[in-house]
Design brief:
Elements (H helix, E strand, L loop, with lengths): L6 E4 H11 L4 E4 L6 H10 L6 E4 L3 H13 L4 E6 H6 L1 H10 L3 E7 L15 H5 L10 E3 L4 H18 L2 E7 H5 L1 E4 L34 H21 L3 E4 L6 E4 L3 H15 L4 E6 L1 E3 L3 H10 L2 E6 L5 H9 L5 E5 L8 H10 L3
Parallel strand pairs: 2-3, 2-4, 4-5, 5-7, 6-7, 10-11, 10-13, 13-14
Antiparallel strand pairs: 1-8, 6-12, 9-11
Length: about 350
């Protein structure tokens, strides 16, 4: 792929520009404090690229607009923070059930309701467990840098269309706001192509009905099992993770997002002190990289999960490794981020 020279930009702006270059044609959203950069960039750039930017009256309206445009075949994106994503859950379950692709950015902030610009990873359950109706899944990707946020945005659009499923980018408040240099993929011009599943009559074919409503029990059950099989396929194809110095590690730190970077520094500092530390960073929160983590856990004596919450990813780590007594947890909340020395101090407790 052709890359541009690096540009210094905040995470949200990099995500917005990457989305446009990935072919996003429609953006709908309700502008919150953490999302002003993405809204400003989309409002300025998307119409100039022949696309559509709409400020919705709330998050429920934004995801409804996204649903409609995606059903017509547009490449669509929306964004919100945790509580706004909560308002989108019913429509997200509709979209998953109807197999409609869409990319959703969630900027994770601390707080049970309204929040300031304080980072959090407390939306992990919301992102990975399917907070709406039925047995649906969202692909959830977690960047740890501005560059990765841009790269994963491009991938998110490809995954969404490849599997006809909504994809969530879960970026904590630090990644979304910090300024870093990033290289962006040059805009790829795609020839106009018809998606055979979209609504509306085209080229003399019969119009489609895109829906997740199945009133007949047999039809509903067939659709549920169809999606289940798709998720099984998806979970085998779309796993992403980073491993760092894990092969000989006695203790593996498991951390994602911005904490993956702090933990990597802790690994380097610990190695200089003779501590056999490694880092395993899940990039896809769902599908969770369980097999890869389980393989490393067979060699390591312990694992320490570090999160900006009270221990949500730790459940998936324990399920993956089946070493409940060897999986430990260290968390911070309220927008506080542990330093690499704090993580090292905690790691010392579990070193043999």
């Amino acid at each position: 792929m052709v890359m541009r020279n690096k540009l210094l930009m905040p995470g949200c702006e990099a995500i917005a520009e990457a989305a446009i270059r990935a072919g996003c044609t429609h953006y709908f959203g309700y502008p919150g404090l953490a999302l002003r950069d993405i809204h400003g960039h989309m409002a300025a750039r998307l119409p100039a690229e022949g696309g559509t930017y709409v400020t919705a009256e709330n998050e429920t309206a934004a995801i409804g607009m996204a649903y409609g445009a995606a059903c017509a075949g547009a490449r669509v994106m929306t964004s919100a923070s945790g509580t706004g994503i909560g308002q989108m859950q019913e429509m997200l379950s509709f979209m998953a059930g109807a197999e409609v692709p869409c990319v959703v950015l969630n900027v994770g902030l601390s707080g049970y309701s309204l929040a300031g610009l304080l980072p959090s990873q407390a939306d992990y359950f919301q992102a990975t467990r399917g907070a709406g109706q039925e047995n649906y899944r969202l692909v959830a990707l977690s960047p740890s840098s501005v560059q990765e946020a841009a790269d994963l945005t491009v991938e998110a659009f490809e995954i969404a269309e490849r599997h006809r499923n909504p994809v969530l980018i879960l970026a904590d408040g630090i990644v979304s706001q910090m300024m870093e240099p990033a290289s962006l993929v040059a805009k790829k011009r795609r020839p106009a192509s018809e998606k055979p599943w979209t609504v509306g009559p085209r080229h003399n074919r019969r119009p489609n009905l895109v829906t997740s409503i199945y009133l007949e029990p047999s039809a509903l059950e067939a659709q549920v099992w169809k999606l289940y099989k798709k998720y099984q396929t998806l979970s085998g194809r779309e796993v992403r993770y980073e491993e760092y110095r894990c092969k000989d590690a006695s203790l593996i730190l498991v951390a994602g997002g911005i904490l993956g970077r702090v933990a990597r520094t802790a690994v380097d500092k610990g190695r200089k002190r003779g501590m056999k530390l490694g880092l395993f960073r899940p990039v896809s929160l769902w599908p969770f990289p369980a097999e890869a983590l389980a393989e490393h856990s067979r060699r390591a004596k312990s694992l320490l999960v570090v999160e900006l919450n009270t221990g949500q990813m730790v459940e998936d780590v324990r399920l993956a490794t089946q070493k409940h007594d060897r999986v430990h947890f260290y968390g911070r909340t309220g927008g506080s981020i542990p330093s690499s020395f704090e993580i090292l101090h905690e790691a010392l407790k579990w070193m043999d």
